Design the sequence.
């Protein structure tokens, strides 16, 4: 071969010709502009019109920005400085910075605490958000974070969050223990747990019935209205009549579930956590604190405010409502009619009610349902309501993801012998969640912005601060664009980051063609 | 034919189906199925679409419940007892028409998932098993790719490897080549032939009659939920007894 070549071909290139760059007109900015802005007469006209509009808007708005006054004590001073010129009065942001960010009641010498909590949030969120690129061990940071943040923001004794964390770890250990047990032991345990929980539920219902009757009598005594009086009495009697059968039913259901053992472990774990929370935490952490005092100045929930409140509500509610939404979506697909029914009713009910109604309920009504002497934290109530609300939406988004999976995936998982929990965790959820990312992010962004609705139940989040203490103060009366623009900017930064993150995540999870 | 003769069929019984019936609602899908499969048998099941072939296979795999009669697989009676069902499911391998690989997991993870989670095999051992079977189905050096990056034929062979990693004693195939382009059919069939030569007990729903002639020791023809006819391949193709079989064969071999 090589001989023939040597004779017939004068020159044989030994290396490949390097690729040549495409001609100038076919690459880079020029090509992009030509193809996207001036590809035809229609496109060209639209481009010119758009450019003109952008130009006009910039020219109109620019003086407002560059004439802006940053140093003034009140809106009148601001106007004096501007002396008739168009210009923003950014001084309000400087003057009321603390209020916008922390609310007007949070103790000033404790501002560093939420700040550190915020910085730690960035650290703690990283392992959960960028799991692939960070060591798995860092997830421990994410797990500890809620307790640290709670302690930093609310203050009080460190022992309380430590105890809660300890009880969660203990519950996980109970879970492991039960999981490792032989089926026969588990069945006995299920019987015991069924009995305890049945009795517990019966007892709770009994107390609840008492409360309902108590409320009924209160309403009756106030002579306000006959309808709620009768309703509450009826509900009370209904609960009295139901409590024994309900208790027995739940107990029996738990006992029956011993077959798979899965539910039992969960219920056992829940009970462990419940008892520890209710009966141990308060006294034990109090005692520990008196021995080794580890305390920060306590800040009550009603003193939280500003953008900090939005961040607290946003992060807590998003991180709670995603898991809850998953559970609801799976529950809605369940073959067990009771579980399915509960999930459907919950989702449909919550979706059918405006969030603002739920917030009013949290503010006013929920107090009725609590035992008279308990003081159930307002922020906690609001968190419960927002979480319920968004978890119902997230559940529906995830249900869409579940429905989009081909039936073959379930079959393949079944045919390999994976049980329900394994198939769900390893096969179904990873794929369904991936499909649901855009929808979940949509709900999360909406939720984050909806946290400003708490201003209508007289909580002073950033919008509440602007509408109340800032706009109604004599100094900054009727200031408008600057403060709302600032709030919008803050929300935009957060929401835009969330959306960018989700797009990045979607690209990461793409597996069909690299 | 020579090859088929070499393959051993033992006296041991792998599957016994007696008088089995199944309904979907009021629709009677499977009627009075009686079938005994010896260990080492290679059975091809054919029949017109909708005749209940998939349903039969899925009943054996305990993916569907039957309402009357009995199915015994590997000495275990299929009942509603969950433990038995799990046992059958993990000991009988199955390949589907549409492969059903898990698209979010790599080829290797697809193969090691069930051994790790169902059999509790240590991860390293499971990976060694997978790396033993993947070259056997001629998927070398693709272990870290995702299913979406492979061709259909490759995907089906990975699916076979995934089943084999569970060390099944019986393999079920439900039209493993019907979703494939013609040039990929052969590579999958070759893999199946190799499997048969190693003495695997196999039930294949397929219309690849060449495969049936070469590998099967019995061909079963189903129609309208019944087993109409079964025979050795030679006799089945050359001398079909029932009219329905003749019609089916003329349609499938005719063109
Ligand atoms: N899940 C189901 N529900 C109701 N009918 C079904 C279901 N699956 C299959 N069938 C019906 O049962 C019959 C047999 O189906 P199948 O076993 O898939 O046939 P084959 O695989 O031979 O083409 C068909 O008529 C089909 O419509
Ligand atoms: Mg079929």
Sequence:
């Amino acid at each position: 071969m090589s001989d023939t070549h040597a004779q017939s071909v004068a020159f044989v290139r030994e290396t490949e010709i390097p690729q040549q760059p495409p001609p100038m007109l076919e690459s880079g900015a020029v090509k992009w502009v030509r193809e996207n802005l001036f590809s035809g007469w229609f496109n060209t006209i639209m481009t010119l019109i758009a450019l003109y509009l952008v130009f006009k808007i910039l020219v109109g708005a620019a003086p407002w920005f560059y004439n802006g006054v940053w140093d003034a004590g009140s809106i009148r001073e601001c106007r004096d400085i501007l002396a008739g010129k168009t210009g923003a009065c950014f001084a309000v942001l400087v003057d009321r910075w603390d209020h916008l960010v922390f609310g007007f009641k949070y103790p000033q010498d404790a501002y560093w605490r939420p700040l550190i909590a915020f910085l730690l949030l960035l650290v703690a969120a990283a392992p959960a958000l960028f799991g692939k690129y960070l060591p798995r061990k860092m997830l421990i940071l994410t797990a500890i974070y809620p307790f640290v943040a709670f302690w930093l923001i609310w203050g009080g004794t460190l022992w309380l969050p430590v105890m809660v964390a300890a009880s969660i770890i203990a519950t996980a250990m109970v879970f492991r223990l039960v999981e490792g047990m032989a089926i026969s032991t588990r069945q006995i345990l299920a019987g015991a747990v069924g009995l305890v929980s049945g009795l517990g539920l019966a007892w709770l219902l009994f107390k609840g019935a008492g409360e309902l009757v108590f409320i009924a009598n209160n309403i009756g005594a106030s002579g306000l209205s006959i309808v709620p009086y009768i309703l509450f009495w009826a509900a009370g009697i209904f609960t009295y009549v139901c409590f024994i059968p309900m208790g027995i039913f739940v107990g029996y259901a738990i006992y029956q579930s011993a077959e798979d053992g899965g539910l039992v472990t969960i219920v056992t774990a829940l009970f462990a956590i419940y008892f520890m929370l209710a009966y141990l935490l308060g006294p034990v952490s109090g005692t520990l604190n008196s021995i080794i005092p580890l305390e920060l100045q306590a800040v009550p929930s009603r003193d939280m405010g500003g953008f900090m409140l939005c961040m607290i509500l946003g992060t807590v509610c998003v991180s709670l409502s995603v898991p809850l939404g998953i559970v609801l979506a799976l529950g809605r697909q369940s073959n067990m009619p009771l579980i399915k029914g509960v999930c459907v009713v919950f989702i449909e009910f919550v979706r059918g009610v405006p969030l603002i109604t739920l917030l009013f309920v949290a503010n006013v009504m929920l107090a009725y349902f609590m035992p008279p002497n308990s003081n159930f934290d307002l922020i906690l109530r609001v968190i419960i309501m927002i979480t319920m609300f968004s978890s119902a939406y997230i559940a529906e988004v995830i249900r869409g993801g579940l429905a989009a999976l081909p039936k073959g995936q379930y079959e393949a998982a079944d045919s390999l012998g994976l049980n329900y929990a394994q198939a769900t965790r390893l096969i179904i959820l990873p794929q369904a969640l991936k499909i649901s990312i855009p929808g979940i992010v949509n709900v999360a962004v909406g939720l984050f912005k909806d946290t400003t609705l708490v201003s209508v139940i007289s909580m002073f989040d950033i919008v509440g601060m602007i509408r109340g203490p800032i706009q109604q103060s004599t100094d900054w009366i009727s200031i408008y664009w600057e403060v709302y623009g600032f709030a919008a900017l803050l929300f935009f930064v957060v929401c835009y980051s969330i959306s960018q993150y989700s797009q990045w995540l979607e690209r990461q999870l793409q597996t069909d063609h690299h | 034919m020579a090859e088929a003769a070499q393959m051993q069929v033992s006296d041991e019984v792998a599957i016994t189906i007696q008088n089995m019936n199944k309904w979907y609602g009021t629709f009677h899908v499977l009627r009075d199925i009686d079938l005994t499969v010896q260990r080492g048998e290679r059975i091809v099941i054919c029949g017109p679409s909708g005749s209940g072939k998939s349903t039969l296979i899925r009943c054996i795999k305990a993916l569907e419940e039957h309402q009357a009669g009995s199915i015994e697989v590997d000495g275990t009676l299929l009942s509603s007892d969950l433990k038995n069902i799990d046992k059958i499911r993990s000991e009988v391998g199955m390949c589907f028409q549409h492969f059903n690989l898990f698209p979010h997991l790599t080829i290797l993870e697809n193969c090691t998932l069930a051994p790790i989670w169902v059999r509790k095999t240590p991860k390293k051992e499971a990976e060694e098993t997978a790396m033993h079977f993947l070259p056997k189905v001629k998927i070398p050096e693709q272990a870290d790719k995702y299913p979406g990056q492979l061709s259909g034929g490759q995907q089906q062979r990975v699916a076979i490897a995934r089943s084999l990693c569970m060390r099944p004693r019986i393999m079920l195939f439900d039209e493993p080549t019907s979703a494939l382009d013609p040039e990929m059919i052969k590579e999958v069939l070759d893999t199946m032939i190799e499997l048969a030569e190693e003495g695997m007990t196999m039930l294949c729903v397929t219309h690849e009659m060449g495969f049936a002639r070469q590998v099967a020791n019995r061909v079963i023809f189903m129609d309208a939920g019944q087993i109409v006819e079964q025979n050795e391949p030679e006799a089945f193709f050359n001398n079909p007894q029932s009219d329905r079989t003749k019609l089916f064969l003329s349609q499938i071999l005719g063109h």
